[in-house]
Automatic annotation (TrEMBL):
Residues reported in the UniProt entry to bind a divalent metal cation: 34, 36, 67, 177
Protein name (database record): Ribulose-phosphate 3-epimerase
The keyword 4Fe-4S is assigned to this record: no
SUPFAM superfamilies per the UniProt record, alphabetical: Ribulose-phoshate binding barrel (SSF51366)
Cross-referenced InterPro entries: Aldolase_TIM, Ribul_P_3_epim, Ribul_P_3_epim-like, RibuloseP-bd_barrel
Homology family: Belongs to the ribulose-phosphate 3-epimerase family.
Pfam families in UniProt: Ribul_P_3_epim (PF00834)
Cofactor(s) needed: Co(2+); Fe(2+); Mn(2+); Zn(2+)
Pathway: Carbohydrate degradation
Catalysed reactions, as listed in the record: D-ribulose 5-phosphate = D-xylulose 5-phosphate
Enzyme Commission designation: 5.1.3.1
Cofactor remark from the record: Binds 1 divalent metal cation per subunit.
Function as written in the Swiss-Prot or TrEMBL entry: Catalyzes the reversible epimerization of D-ribulose 5-phosphate to D-xylulose 5-phosphate.
Length: 251
């Protein structure tokens, strides 16, 4: 089985104290840092750029998960690779040459991922599964933080995991972005996701310590995982969330 990973969103951090926030989240157990790159055209917002990635790359060894919500992503792959990206995720809706774009990403020796908006069906990526390391399912319409979770996301994740299993691509991870909290992460874990973007719903909570909120989200995820395993006849007693994550990874 797959390891639970939480990727705190850079977009939700305090930009006056980015380095400090990065280190707090490292202490909280962050597996990845998620960068939302928006151009104000593909989505109705404008955030971040390669310079932010480049600056933060010097501050941490944790992998950078870079989500390009931009038009013509093929023009900028090299720029974001050179800035320090470890995973580059492009939207299926942003290009008519998805296969070629994913090949380009992999040619730079970084991981490739594709994102699907809520209205985009799973079927559009069937022909590129062999070129993917991860699929990002949007649980909200992209562009702004703090939106309501789209409940049909759970079934969409289940459908995707079934497709991956059926075609022997269980190595592909499923990431979900949008309103990730203790409640939604439980449903999404059960349906087959294992990577979760931590935003304002579960990590960056007003007047809360982000190290503690991240640890709590991991702990709640591990409790949900334990319940899933118990339902399947497995027992993991008196385990910390780190123990549970390691145990699940080896299944």
């Amino acid at each position: 089985m797959r390891e639970i990973k939480i990727a705190p969103s850079i977009m939700c951090m305090d930009f006056n104290h980015l380095e400090d926030e990065i280190h707090k989240l490292e202490r909280g157990g962050a597996h990845l840092f998620h960068f939302d790159i928006m151009d104000g055209v593909f989505v109705p917002n404008f955030t971040l750029g390669p310079d932010v990635i480049k600056a933060l790359r010097k501050k941490t060894k944790i992998s950078f998960d870079v989500h390009l919500m931009i038009c013509h992503p093929e023009r900028y792959i090299e720029t974001f690779v050179k800035a320090g990206s470890d995973i580059i995720c492009v939207h299926a809706e942003s290009t008519v040459h998805l296969d070629r774009l994913l090949q380009t990403i992999r040619s730079y020796k970084v991981k490739s991922a594709v994102a699907l908006n809520p209205a985009t069906p799973i079927s559009v990526i069937k022909y590129v599964l062999d070129k993917l390391d991860m699929v990002l399912i949007m649980a909200v319409n992209p562009g702004f933080a703090g939106q309501k979770f789209i409940s049909k996301t759970v079934e969409k994740v289940r459908e995707l995991r079934s497709l991956l299993t059926m075609n022997n691509f269980n190595n592909i991870e499923i990431e979900v972005d949008g309103c990730i909290n203790s409640h939604t992460i439980a449903m999404l874990l059960e349906s087959g996701a294992n990577v979760f973007v931590g935003g304002t719903a579960g990590v960056f909570i007003k007047n809360k310590n982000i190290s503690e909120t991240l640890r709590k989200l991991y702990f709640d995820a591990s409790k949900s995982l334990n319940a899933i395993l118990l339902e399947k006849g497995n027992t993991v007693s008196k385990a910390t969330f780190q123990d549970l994550k390691k145990w699940w990874k080896n299944q």
